[in-house]
Each structure stands twice: as structure tokens, then as C-alpha cells.
Automatic annotation (TrEMBL):
It comes from the Bacteria. GO terms for molecular function: DNA binding; DNA-binding transcription factor activity. SUPFAM superfamilies: Winged helix' DNA-binding domain. This is HTH arsR-type domain-containing protein. CDD domains: HTH_ARSR. The lineage of its organism: Bacteria, Pseudomonadati, Thermodesulfobacteriota, Desulfobacteria, Desulfobacterales. Pfam families: HTH_5. Keywords: DNA-binding, Transcription, Transcription regulation. Residues 1-89 form the HTH arsR-type domain.
Amino acid sequence: MSLIQQLKALADENRLKILQMLLNGDLCVGALARHLGISKPAVSQHLRVLRKAGLVKGEKRGYWTHYVVERETMSRIAEQIQAMSSDGRSNQTFCWRISDSPPENHQE
């Protein structure tokens, strides 16, 4: 799954809330629905998007499936975003060197 597709999966308030709750521990659909105040089918749809993006996985425990965050995937996304930020600063410094001085109006 590409970074763009993963970021699109994160581009929803309820999905971000689900991830935030799951970072504190595993939860089932019913618990997530109660905490969010939305229906179980709606939670299931959000989880489907997050699973497809590789951001969460379900672990069957008896009758219920408990969902957990794929922390390795989340770390890779954070690293890719950080790398883009760092690359931007390098390019900016390169541009300053070309012009021999930073722009007067530049703010970081």
C-alpha cells in the first residue's frame, strides 16, 4: 500500500479517533462504537479501510475480534513524513547557497 493510500485512510476524523483509542489497547467493534457514538456497521467500515491500508489488524478471541494498531506500519509512515520534512530543509538550504544569502522574508 502506498503512502498516499495510507494517508487517505487516515483522512477521516472517526478513523483517527479509532487509531487513537487502539493505541491505548485492543478493542472490539462494540466498544469502539460505544466510545465513538456511531453504529457497529459504521465502525466495521472504518476498520475495513484501516485494515486495507495496513494500519490495524484483527485478532480473533473467542466470539469477538479485537483490533490492534500495526505499530510497525505507523512508524514507517512517520519516518516517511519526517524524511520529506528533512528533505525540504535540505532543498531550502541548497537554494540559499545558490543565491548566496537566505531570503529576507523567510520564516521557518
